[in-house]
Amino acid sequence: MLRAIFSLLAVFLLAALAVYSISFILPELARQLGSGAYFAVPLSWVGGVIGGVVLSILADVWSRRFSLLISILLFLIPLFLNLEVRNLPELYLLWFTIGFGVNGENGLSYAYAAELSPSRMRGLVGSLMQGLYFLGGLLGLLMSYLLRNPFTYFLTVSLVVLLSLPLWVFIPESRFRGSGELSMRAFGGSTLKTLIFGSIFAVGSFLFVVPLVSLSFTLLTSLELPAFQTIVVALLVGLVGFTIAGRLSDRLGRKRTTYVFLVISLIFSSLMFLEVPSIVEFSVIALMFGSAFFAYFGVWMGEIFPGEVRATATNLVFFLGRLIGGGFGVAIVLLLPLGLQRDLAVALLASSILVGVAVSKLPETAKGIQ
User: Is the four-CA dihedral 250, 115, 359, 284 of positive or negative sign?
Assistant: First the structure.
């Protein structure tokens, strides 16, 4: 079982590396293909919105294991094809497909984590999994720093991500094998309530995490602060925060732990809004740590939903979060009129409040916690 969990986490990390990889080579791609290259990133989120739902339905009605394999192939093959991309339509199609596959893989991994992990460690495993997005981003950042040429960079990333295929071999079929049809009756009652408030939680979380990760470098650069070093530290601290949050959620409960990290987020979002110049860098780092209220959310949803619709319901919860927070989160912040630092702070404050409202309506699932 430990081998299966390790393989699941490793595939999740490689999927994170795949989807983040374009972010660190965009200036060079824009130089070669035009400024329209920047639209490949939101297109990958749009692909993810669709792929997450489609692949999860396939998993629930057919096979989670083979749906996971399809999702891996859907981000692995287009990643290799970046070596030959010659124009913007090709780039858009490739990154739409990569997002389709990566978010399909993510949703299936949350369902698997809830099934494979011992109940006393589900929060930790789920948080480690979600925290691997920070590590995937760091790997992409470091590889782009060492490999400046896009061809060499994408070749190296693709060869690393290719490890997903042998790792998939060690992931077993789910005990909830597809019955050939989706049970709509499972979506009534408490499941519907969780879908509604889980979706609100997801929207708030993505509106917090995506703009924070995407715009912090720009903010620090505009303030003539050491952006690269601060972001590296912030991502590492974020990974540590996610791990701590997962363990706390197993001991204190999912809801109490969420409130603890929301308080951290509210405090440092407020300080960012007040534009205290001496602590901007520390605020960014602390906010990465505070974002750990999102750490165990995927596995939490997997615990709540019934097994026969677990993958579909979990991805439906993430649907609006990926669409609004992932697809439009950065644009929403940039359209605010207060200046980047305060715009970002307002978005983080509003997102934290949204998550706080949602978590109060979700059931506790940690063993022994009421």
Answer: positive
**What Cα–Cα distance (Å) separates residue 38 from each residue in 23, 242, 271, 338?**
9, 29, 31, 24
pLDDT tens-digit readout, 200-259: 999 999 899 888 887 887 788 888 888 878 888 898 898 899 889 888 888 888 899 999
Residue 190's CB: how many other CB atoms inside 10 A? 11
Helix (H, G, I), strand (E, B) or coil at 126: helix
pTM: 0.79
Under DSSP, the state recorded for 367 is T
- Which helix or strand (DSSP H or E) is residue 264 part of? helix 254-273
* Half-sphere exposure at residue 197, Cβ-oriented, CA atoms within 13 angstroms: 16
Output the furthest CA–CA distance in the chain (Å, rounded): 59
Q: Is 106:57 a contact under the CB 8 Å cutoff?
A: no
The CA distance from 185 to 164, in Å, is: 35
Classify residue 275 as left (phi > 0), alpha (psi -120 to 50) or beta.
left
Domains recognised in the chain with CATH numbers: 2-166+187-359 (1.20.1250.20)
The Cα–Cα gap between 82 and 76 comes to 10
Q: Which tokens hold the place of 160?
A: 């690393």
Residues 248-285 as b or e (16 or more Cβ within 10 Å = b) = bbbebbbbebbebbbebbbebbebbbeeeeeebbebbb
150 alpha-carbon distance from chain centroid: 24
**In the block, which residue shows the tokens 């993958």?**
311
**DSSP string covering 110-122:** HHHHHHHS-GGGH
